[in-house]
UniProtKB/TrEMBL annotation:
Gene3D superfamilies: Triphosphoribosyl-dephospho-CoA protein. Its EC number is 2.4.2.52. Pfam families: CitG. The keyword Ribosomal protein does not apply. This is Probable 2-(5''-triphosphoribosyl)-3'-dephosphocoenzyme-A synthase. It comes from Tetragenococcus osmophilus.
Length: 281
């Protein structure tokens, strides 16, 4: 299925982009001592069969969206288990797996009555379906959170700061995609090579979003520092050489501070997916 190929390629594109500040790429492991480029390849390969299942579940679904989400979540739990087995229990793509489950499910559902390639309106419609599908999610997952003994990083962060993380993005229909990244990619496609365009998209995200990975590792101060640095780079409108040099310097800073904008990286992979659907890249 074409959707499976697009989702898998999106994750390959994201990890291959280099240099990325604080993130695993072709050049180094960023601020991650427990994972590397090849582990990401193993992780992506473990998830690819499930991407097909997510899209199939959506395409064959004939009930309400809440029941589709239940099917996707059960399959996503299986995918996460296989991913962790492939990565020796290292969390490489937990957030991305969740997001691709709901996005592929929603896309498959939408394609029952529509076709590729997508227009920007088709993308907006799919994101709206995701929002409808996950409206119950925050209440469902966080209503009894204080009674749980084994909390995820996202759950701990919610208790500490109220940040909703990827669940919040989903319930709102991924506003970082619809309002920020995708308009940027649509406006700048064809102006420079794909790698530079996507790296600029990453820095745009870093400069704007509430990144739960940064908040987990560096608290509000660490997140704000990274956000301000990203904003400076983005607004400087550097040529390709200087832009790459600034990313290399930014990477070293984040390695020293043990900070990684993993939330922005996940969102970038989702933006790449829609870029394939819209034939932007």
């Amino acid at each position: 299925m074409q959707l499976t190929k697009f989702a898998t390629k999106s994750l390959y594109y994201e990890v291959t982009l280099s240099p990325k500040p604080g993130l695993v790429d072709r050049f180094d492991n960023g601020a991650h001592q427990d994972m590397d480029f090849f582990m990401f390849i193993d992780s992506i390969e473990s998830l690819a069969p499930y991407f097909y299942e997510y899209a199939r579940l959506g395409f064959e679904h004939h009930g309400d969206l809440a029941s589709l989400f239940t099917k996707l979540r059960h399959k996503g739990i299986e995918a996460e288990r296989d991913m962790l087995e492939a990565t020796y229990q290292i969390n490489t793509h937990k957030g991305a797996n969740f997001s691709f489950a709901v996005l592929l499910g929603a896309t498959g559902f939408y394609l029952q009555e529509h076709s590729l390639p997508f227009s920007f309106q088709d993308t907006a419609n799919v994101l709206s379906l995701v929002s409808q599908m996950t409206q119950h999610l925050v209440q469902q997952d966080f209503s009894h959170i204080t009674q749980k003994n084994d909390l995820s990083h996202g759950e701990k962060l919610y208790i500490k700061t109220g940040v909703l993380g990827v669940r919040g993005e989903a319930t709102q229909g991924y506003p970082a995609l619809s309002n920020l990244l995708l308009p940027f990619l649509r406006d700048h496609t064809g102006q420079e090579n794909t790698e530079v365009l996507l790296l600029r998209g990453l820095i745009l995200l870093v400069s704007q979003i509430e990144d739960s990975n940064l908040l987990h590792r560096g608290g509000v101060n660490g997140w704000q520092q990274v956000k301000q640095r990203g904003m400076f780079i983005h607004e400087s409108k550097l040529n390709e050489y200087d832009f790459r040099q600034s990313l290399t310097s930014f990477n070293q800073e984040l390695i020293e501070k043990n900070l990684s904008p993993g939330g922005a990286a996940d969102l970038l992979s989702l933006g790449i997916y829609f870029s394939f659907l819209e034939e932007l890249i």
